[in-house]
Amino acid sequence: MDKGRAAAGRIRIGIGGWTYEPWRGSFYPEGLAQRRELEHASRRLTSIEVNGTYYGAQKPESFRKWHDETPEDFVFSLKAPRYATNRKVLADAGETIARFLSGGVMLLGDKLGPINWQFMATKKFEPADFEAFLKLLPASAEGRALRHVVEVRHESFRTPAFTEMLREHGVAAVVAADGKYPQIADPTAPFVYARIMGTSADEALGYSPAALDLWAERARIWAAGGLPEGLDHVGPNAVPGPRDVYLYVIGGHKAHNPQAAMALIERLG
Questions:
Q1: Phi, psi at residue 176, to the nearest 5°?
Q2: What is the CATH code for 3-268?
Q3: Distances from the Cα of 147 to the Cα of 96, 139, 256, 259, angstroms
Q4: Which of 229, 225, 227, 228 shows the shortest CA–CA distance to 240?
Q5: pLDDT in tens, 186-230
C-alpha cells in the first residue's frame, strides 16, 4: 500500500436497514430465508444504518445477534431514538440519551459506528439549547469511544456558528445530498457522514455511471483530508487531515439503493 492510501481514512458504504420486500429477488436471492438477509447484506456492503433504533428501543439480544451475524470488519451506524431529538427543549434529553446508550448498544463492540441524531425539518437552530444538547453526548461509553453525527434539516442551521459549535465538540453534520434537505458539507469531526438520496428508477444501478464515479471520487477526497468540489459549505475551510467516511445510499428509488452502494464499493476497490 502506498503512503497516500495508508494515510487516508477508511471508507464504508451502505444502505438504510436491510428488511425491504422489493429487495427480495433483486438484492436478495429468490428463496433466501428472511432471517439470513442481514448475513447476505453484510457480505456485500461494508456498513448499514439502522433505522429501527429511531422508532423504539431494541432488545439487547438484537444487538448481540447483529454483531454475531456480520463479518469482523462490518460496522453499524445507529439512528438515535426520536424521543431525544423531537422535543422543544433539547437540554432535557439527558435521560433519554443515557437510556439509549445503556440499552444494549454497546454489545455491538467494534461494530458500533457513528450514532445519528436526526432532527425534524421543523427544528430550528437555537444556539444555547443546541449546545446544551451537544454537551449531553458522551465521548465514550463503557470504555469505548463514541462518534456522534447530527442530521439537521432546517435552513437556520446553515451558519458558521453552527459548524464551529460542532467542531468544538467533535461532532459531525450529516452531508445531505441529491435530495430536498439543506446541505452542510463542512467537515467538523474526524469522520464524514453522507446520506445520498438521488437514486432513480430509470438507472439500473440507481445512479448514472458518471454520478457513481463522482460520489466515489468525493469519498476518496474526504478520506484523504480534502474538500470535494460541488458541495455546499457554510463556514471556513476545515484543517485538512485524513477522515473516515460513512456514505449511505438512502431514500430516492429505494429498490435500487443496494445496487448503487455495491457499485460504489466496486469503484473504490
A1: -85, 130
A2: 3.20.20.410
A3: 17, 7, 29, 27
A4: 225
A5: 999 999 999 999 999 999 999 999 999 999 999 999 999 999 999
